[in-house]
Predict the structure.
Amino acid sequence: MAAPLGGMGAPHRPVLLQETLKYLAPERGGLFVDCTVGLGGHSEAILKSSPDTRILGLDLDPAALEYSRERLASFGKRFRAVQANFRQIETVLDEAGERDPSGILVDLGVSSLQFDSPERGFSFRFDAPLDMRMNPASGPTAAELLQQLPETEIARIIFEFGEERHSRRIARRIVERREQGQRVTTTAELAELVRAAIGGGRKRQQIHPATRTFQALRIAVNNELEGLGEFVETSVDLLAPEGRFAAISFHSLEDRIVKRKLRILSGLCECPPRLPVCACGARKVVEILTRRPVMPGEREIDENPRARSAKLRACRRLELN
Ligand SMILES: C[S@@+](CC[C@H](N)C(=O)[O-])C[C@H]1O[C@@H](n2cnc3c(N)ncnc32)[C@H](O)[C@@H]1O
């Protein structure tokens, strides 16, 4: 089996598991696409909910695929997993000879396997090369981005994706280092640079000063927001009538995209009133099942603090004439 979590941190617990099952309703049977199979926690629960469910799992990370395939081997052919970006869901389904899924789940963000593996460079809790790629074979690392991008672009990324108000100061420090012929190559170097740029914060501040910068870089390295809205729309279009779509997001930028797209797909036009024709693409193809985002209760947050920012939204595909 892929390396276990080495005793570091809590093992991965599927976030909002009961709530996700409630909205996906896997007891109906059929094919479910787990777009972010990770360690297979949600997949396992879906497979257990009915002998008639099958899963097609996707993940960018080969280590996650190895882990989940091993974990779910006892389900035989009912679980298949492929290395793919969920933005390619349509092609993946085609190539697998599948259509009309009963449900599609996306659980965005990083898994514990990634976050707790020092060598992946996602966390400042360990000193390691500043990598952060979900697929370690593809694209520039976070260190390479910091070496290549202009100062204004680094500042934009940290501001937009990290909602960090000191973004310019941090970008300046990074580029100053470059100008001195030094690179930021490790997680500890970046964490220390951010702390030096913006201070340690008040004693009672709950998060490390580098948290927002690390989040921003991870989003940029993995292009996490690009095409997310299109993915939601494609998924809804692929669903069988009465099929369910569920998305779990971990920061407001993702949640905003999912929320907006689901509203548009439920027929709510968001164009200004004076526009002669609708330009936002509103069409009524789903019923939104979560009027408000579903969030973990206190008990789940106590047991799994990483769940604290999770938000679940779900919809049901309408039967169209
Ligand atoms: C929060 S974890 C999923 C955990 C999973 N639900 C479980 O119960 O174990 C997110 C996973 O999504 C994967 N991922 C992130 N972006 C992806 C993308 N665009 N396409 C495919 N997989 C992606 C990550 O590699 C990670 O394994």
